Amino acid sequence: MKKYNGNTFNTILSTMAELGYFVRYKVMNASDYGIPQHRNRIV
Asked: Domain residues for 20?
C-alpha cells in the first residue's frame, strides 16, 4: 500500500495486536489459483 507512505498495513497490524488479535498473513497471487488476474492479495 503506497498511500500514507506505506504505513497503512503496519497500522492495521499494530491496531489488531493492541485489540488482542493474533494476525498472520501471506501475500498470494490470484493467478496461481486459476483466477485470470495478475494481482497480489494479502490473505
From this structure: 3-42
